[in-house]
Amino acid sequence: MKPFKFKIMILSIGLILGLAGTGLAQCWFIPRPIPPEIPNPVPLEFPVLEKETIHFSVQEQLGKITLEQVWKNPFDHPIEGRLIFPLPPDARVTHFEMTVNDTVFSGKLYNRVKARRIYEKIVRRLRDPGLLEYFNDRLFQTEIFPVPAGQTRRISVNYQAVFPFDQNMVTLKLPLFVQKFAWRRNEQILPKRTLVISGVVRSKSPLKTIYSPNSGVDILQRSDHEAKVSFEGTLSDQKKKEFRLIYSLQKDPVGLSLLTFRKPNTRGYFLLLASPSIDQNQKQSTPTDFVFLLDRSGSMSGEKIEQAKKALKYCLNHLKSNDRFGLVTFSSDVEAFKGELLPIKTWRGKALHFVDQIDARGGTNIQGALESLKRFRGDSTRPLEVIFLTDGKPTLGVTDESELLESFRKETKPNLRLFVFGVGFDVNTFLLNHLSQEGHGMVVYVEPESNLEVKISSFFNKVKAPVLTNISLNWGGQSVQEVLPKELPDLFQGGQLIVAGTYKKSGTFQIGLKGRFRGQTRIFKRKFNFPEAANENDFVPVIWASRKIGFLLDEIRWHGENEELKNEVIRLSKKFGIVTPYTSYLIREPEQPLVLQPTAGTPPTPQPPRFNRSKKIFLQDFVNKGAEVSGASSFYISKSIQNLQQSRVVSSESEADLVEFVAGRSFIFADSIWVDQRVESKSADVTVAFGSPAYFDLLKWHPEMAEFFALGRAVKFKFAGVVFQISENGKEKWSSNESEKYRRLAP
After folding, report:
1. Which residues have CB under 8 Å from 31's CB, separation 6+?
2. First-to-last CA distance in the chain?
3. How confident is the model at residue 25, as a pLDDT?
4. pLDDT category of residue 182 using cuts at 50, 70 and 90
């Protein structure tokens, strides 16, 4: 977890204390009475959030939201307090109701002015700046109610809201707040906490480019007019402070949407999203040719070959009626089923019988498998998708990677796409990576213990129906840079293309997306505003930076390390809080669990990062073993770099514990203080005491400072040329001259 940081840390209905922890909530429990000062260690006791469920139903822009939370009092005496609920800032709330165990509780809706007074009181008395992120939001506050000893209380919140619409996009936002540790004096209580999000979006106009930057969110769209959204996991699986869903309303066969982030007088960042209509009519879908290359060498024997055969049969059974196919197996020799492209309607049965007879034996002749593609020339106007599965290195025929790549390069055609499945740790990652690049496709690395049938069939569902191929973009005079991916992949039915980059000019530009659509060249155009300033989508630069880092690490891996590339990786890592092998020192791992102390000078030790096996090996082995082409290290390094290159969401894993990206700025925790990387001098121009009248005056004059303040009680940042420092001791009140000076600052 992050060390004493508050970017996404509001306390749950259980805590409003400045302590690091995990979990999410939308309501806060304010204990009664609020003590005038919290000593150290913390003497307060709070209920535990066991489960949170959020359900939403949206028609065009009008949404109905239901939040349910289950809270438990683990103590032998009752706890009582109030609940407060910040209202979504951009939504027009039309109805609000809260119940506790089926009893409707009365409360008050407060406008922004009155809500600020309540926030200010809580922050000052509990000495927790986390609430300040919502300093300008309205809130609902209930009357005082009890949570009996050892019992649970179910909280239900219902409200309606009209969500904002801009550039043909609707943005649904629901606040998610990090729950802190529940306490019993100095003991930590770490309950199991679950989060369930479910929702449905309906629209009379066709829905396009449905997207969520939150990690682990599943979006299922079966028609152009309805989509289902779901997430189920633990409360720590969401890193962002809010759940966000973005969708556009467009009638074009391929929809385009633009998300931007920009600070004034700096370059802007963008995500361009493209998605096709959900077309169930096979007669209108693009006829496609498929060739399956299956490794049946001896190492594939047993469960592996049986799963591969089941997956291959799944693919054959799910080809479209107007598709054609070819089938090749290889080991020491190469065997083709008929050796030509065949219509699936008349040859499916015999092909399935051929698959049943496949057994595993012999070596691995990758050269022969690739050369067999010459038999399947097909029609150059039809997409040709090659699905190539192997679990080993080439052992027969040509085995040199460079020769194999050069031979394949000569045979590639504009309509060919090569999708590679590398199974297990023995694969040659250099060869597979570069084959997929030359084949304008991608590589999928499958761990030895994974179910091949599930992996292949799931992937095939994503690529079986190409909609737009040979894609290019015309930026209409806009000056874009560092656009990733450098080569645009095809767009498939039910899929989405996400292009990340930076821009210079502000204004309206017409973007054109060009490609082969149903056998003809089509250009889909839409005008977008690239703003001079846009603060809303702060996840956009992080996703761009992840892709850029992945690109740079790939260059370092295969072409050698140099100082320029290494330093750029380090710079981006620090600026955007993305862990890399060169900045893994930004992670803190405790030797043993500690009682957390809510002091400004010493941040609490975070929990160990929740990195999976792949990322751990990547961080540990890249520098020394990055050039290896096979083995577990090579496998996981390749997989991790690929994940960075294909970033679509903000990672849910713990990233750099000592780096925070806030409102377009990078803050690094050093010497017990969060420091804005725009600050060049060690000394501050003015030091302000946390929680003082001067502190809250700054917030009232400049609400945009709230996100900086929410980092903690020790923060240094630059604003309008002035370096401010927040600390326990400092300026308490402004003089009349100072008040006039700092009130007039313009960022």
Report:
1. 16, 44, 45, 46, 79, 80, 81
2. 31
3. 39
4. very low
b/e map of 203-217 (b: 16 or more CB within 10 Å)? beebbbbbbbbbbeb
What is the DSSP pairing of strand 254-261 with strand 242-249?
unpaired
Cβ-proximal residues to 41 (8 Å cutoff; 6+ apart), any chain: 185, 186, 595, 597
Quote the CA–CA distance of 699 and 720 in Å, as a whole number.
14
Give CA–CA dist 439/386, Å, rounded: 9
The region of weakest confidence among 64-78, 160-174, 649-663 is: 649-663
pLDDT for the residue numbered 12: 29
Owner of token pair 């040329």: 721
Which tens digit of pLDDT belongs to each residue from 9-63?
Answer: 222 233 332 222 222 335 566 655 544 444 444 445 667 777 888 999 999 888 8
Q: Identify each DSSP E strand in 73-186 by its residue range.
A: 79-86, 92-100, 103-105, 107-110, 139-142, 145-147, 152-162, 165-166, 169-175, 177-178, 182-184
Indicate the Cα dihedral angle 397, 400, 401, 407, nearest 10°: -60
Is the separation of the CB atoms in 381 and 348 below 8 Å? no
Say how far apart CA 221 and CA 498 lie, in whole Å: 17
User: In whole angstroms, what is the distance from residue 45 CA to residue 658 CA?
Assistant: 29
What is the DSSP-derived secondary structure letter of residue 41? S
For residue 113, give every residue at least 6 positions away whose Cβ sits within 8 Å of its Cβ, in sequence order, or none. Answer: none
Domains of the chain and CATH, by start: 12-251 (2.60.40), 255-277+468-530 (2.60.40.1230), 289-464 (3.40.50.410), 541-586+610-645 (no CATH), 659-743 (no CATH)
**Predicted pLDDT at 136:** 59
Whether the CB-CB separation of 8 and 239 falls below 8 Å is answered with: yes
Average pLDDT over every residue of 463-486: 93
CA distance 706 to 722: 16
Q: What is the 3-state secondary structure (H, E, C) of 675-712?
A: EECCCCCCCCCEEEECCCHHHHHHHHHCHHHHHHHCCC
pLDDT band (50, 70, 90) for residue 2: very low
Taking the mean position of all CA atoms in its chain, how far away is CA 566? 24
| The two structure tokens encoding residue 501 | 């980059």
Of 431, 449, 422, 445, the closest CA to residue 636 belongs to 445
Closest C-alpha among 553, 562, 544 to residue 584:
553
Q: At what angle do helices 563-576 and 540-559 cross, to 10 degrees?
A: 160
- Determine contact, residues 161/152, Cβ cutoff 8 Å: no
**Cα distances (angstroms) measured from residue 393 to each of 297, 359, 367:** 11, 19, 11
